[in-house]
Amino acid sequence: MDRLKRLEAVQDVVLEISKLSASCNDISDFLKSVHLAISRLMYAANFYVAIYDEAQHSLRFAYRVDEVDSFPGASQSFTLASPEQSPTAWVILNRQPLFMTAADDEARERENPEWGSGTRAEYWMGHPLLDPQRHPLGAMVIQIYDKNHSYTQEDQKLFGLVAGHVSTALQSLLSLDRLEQAVKQRTIMLEQQVEERRKAESLQRALYQIAELSVFASAEDRKFSRLHQILQELMAVPNFVVALFHEDTQEFSVEYFVDEIDEDMTGSRFPLGAGMTSFVVRKKQAQLIDRVKLNALVSQGEIQVLGNLSTYSWIGAPLFADDRLYGVIIIQSYQPALTYTQADLELIAFVANHVAAAFARIRADEEVRQAKLELEQKNQKLNLTLDTLKTAQAELVGQEKLASLGRLVAGVAHEINTPLGICVTATSHIVEEFSLVKNDFSEGKLDEQGLTEFFNMLDQALRITTNNIQRSADLVKSFKQVAVDQSSESIREFDMRAYVEEILFSLQPKLKGKKFEVKLDCPVGIKMKTYPGAISQIITNLITNSLLHGFEGAEKGTMLIQVSKDPDNDDTLLMTYSDDGKGMSSIELEKLFEPFYTTKRGHGGSGLGAHIVYNLVTGPLAGQVKASSEPGQGLQYKMKFPCQRTIAINPV
Q: CA torsion 173→179→184→190, rounded to 10°?
């Protein structure tokens, strides 16, 4: 009959757990009801259920009742111990029930001193709570400290049966609990974010007001009261002082003073000495001082208290800008309830930096205004002189370019005279011979031999005329293209080698009758789209400079023009010009590109040749140029500029 009654009680407990799982939404209430139900089946004065979070590997006691030991709060989680350290962890991680007597527990502790914690029970029985996939949900534990009670094997089986039903019910409750916990955590997090955002917006607004205010607009308009108002929007500032430093007297003057205890000290002065204000000046950074720190600093002789001794919390920030002291900002509290923090210190330090920057700006503005007044008159004179010099320089550069073009015209004209003269002579001879043949023919004296001699003379004269006319045409064509490029100042497409050859052909009159040679090392097919006139002017000036300066007193010489693509950038052209003339000293080389610098002053040198080269390379060609030379080693120019120039400008 007793066994039948117990079986009926077990059935009632199982049904009750099923009903509770469907109607109960709170894990603690559910487990409390389970505890009461188990108490009807066996001794259950000490009972707890531990919930395991596999993802976090953590444990919390969702329900606990114990006659001896105390447990953490139901919401407190902690890392689960290893199976060798805790019987609860052993049950959960091994997913097996564990039944121990006091002797069993003591034996395990002898094997492992780290085993177990809390008061040893006479009987300890734990059963894992598992989901259908046998993943651990936690453990249900019951224990006895009283030797007058014990658990039978039937109790262990019943406890396991109840644990299985609790596991089934616990799955849905844990899902709901986790959802509620997630909602709570999300709500708390959102509330924190809203609060942090509100604080951040308030801080940003206040800092913007401080920055916009710049504390004051001028030395005569010091808005320290407005600064005080802005700070009070961020923190409690019942006592606020601003004192400015005077370098000439080494004193502070109180410019703004609000205090709950002391009388108004606005306008008063005190020296830089050993007080708290002077302490932050010596430290050159903001200081947070409470009563304990104040007493320590006083005992160490770091500070002498000159004002009220009832200060509870004090912040002082020096106004330093560019290592120059402008004053201090001070806030303080006389009440224990108002204690300033490190965040408050950082805020006041930030404000102090803005105030100091404003003072520095005012001083800089005053110095700038004074310097501006002094410079304006000088600038007027200098501008007039500079305009005059620029006009003169522009005129001289233009004259030099025109003179270069004029010399080119004169040379080509002289060169064309010779072939044209030959053509005139040959033509005159043809006319004269034709007249003689015509007379012989009219008089019947023209025989076969005479006609043959006339044809031979005519053939020779025409060949001479044709060759010289072609030479003249080539000279005119080359001159025409180079001259147009030098004067048009426009961008066009051209082949680099062919164009340089045209330039050199037009410069042949300069080299005629002399033992000076120009060599060209340039591959065929380098396509350019830039200012050809700039390139023509550069080569012309460089060759002219070599003939005039580099080969002075020399009987012969060689000039080399090397052109290639930049191996690191296919869109960039490298051009090197060098001669084997007398070279230049380092002092002369430093002044090479300066306008009007020449070693031939009064002997045909304008001092603008190299200057024009520099301006053309760095201006229209958008490139770079460097020169190198040593006495007796010739002169070398290295130029680099883009092959494609798309932005049209006015060349120098």
A: 180
Answer whether 468's CB lies under 8 Å from 504's CB.
no
Say how far apart CA 98 and CA 95 lie, in whole Å.
10
| Those residues with Cβ within 8 angstroms of residue 163's Cβ, 6 or more apart along the chain or in another chain | 97, 127, 128, 129, 140
Please tell me the distance from the alpha carbon of residue 386 to that of residue 106, in angstroms, as a whole number. 103
Q: Extract the tokens encoding 323.
A: 């290592």
Q: Quick check: 182 pLDDT over 80?
A: no
Q: Are 58 and 81 in contact (CB under 8 A)?
A: no
Q: Which of 13-17, 104-108, 164-168, 278-282 has the lowest mean pLDDT?
A: 13-17
Nearest alpha carbon to residue 496 among 596, 420, 563, 590: 563
Contact call for residues 345 and 310 (beta carbons, < 8 A): no
Residue 398: is its pLDDT beyond 60?
no
Q: Are 255 and 270 in contact (CB under 8 A)?
A: no
Residue pLDDT, tens place only, 47-84: 999 999 888 899 999 899 999 988 888 888 889 999 99
The span from the CA of 623 to the CA of 3, in Å, is 107
Round to the nearest angstrom and report the end-to-end CA distance of the chain: 122
Question: Which letter does DSSP use for residue 644 in this model?
Answer: B
Beta strands at 515-521 and 492-495: parallel, antiparallel or unpaired: unpaired
CA distance 285 to 349: 8
CA-to-CA distance for 62 and 75, rounded, in angstroms? 7
Diameter of the chain by CA atoms?
176
Contact 605, 557 (CB under 8 A): no
The enclosing H or E element of 206 equals helix 153-213
Q: Residue 252 gets which letter from DSSP?
A: E
Distance CA 556, CA 514 (A): 7
Which of 549, 545, 630, 643 lies closest to 583 in space, CA to CA?
630
Q: At 571, phi and psi to the nearest 5?
A: -90, 5
CB atoms within 10 A of CB 214: 15
Tokens of 117: 């914690």
User: Do the Cβ atoms of 316 and 308 come closer than 8 Å?
Assistant: no
Residue 530, helix vs strand vs coil: strand
Q: Assess contact for 429 and 461: CB atoms under 8 A.
A: yes
Map tokens 């105030």 to a residue: 355
Six-digit token string for 173: 């409750």
Q: Amino acid identity of 23?
A: S
Print burial letters for 574-586: b (CB count within 10 Å at least 16), e (below 16): bbebbbbbbbbee
pTM for the model? 0.36
Beta bridge partners of 245: 252
| Beta partners for residue 332, in sequence order | 239, 314
What is d(CA 55, CA 65) in angstroms, rounded to the nearest whole number?
27
Residue 561 burial by CB count (10 A; 0-12/13-18/19+): exposed, middle or buried? buried
Nearest residue to 639 (alpha-carbon basis) of 598, 605, 600, 610: 610
CA separation for the pair 471, 468 (Å, rounded): 5
pLDDT in tens, 335-352: 888 999 998 999 899 888
What lies within 8 Å, CB to CB, of 350 at 6+ separation is: 207
CA distances from 348 to 265, 327, 337, 357 (A): 21, 14, 20, 14
Query: Cα 393 vs. chain centroid, distance in angstroms?
Result: 43
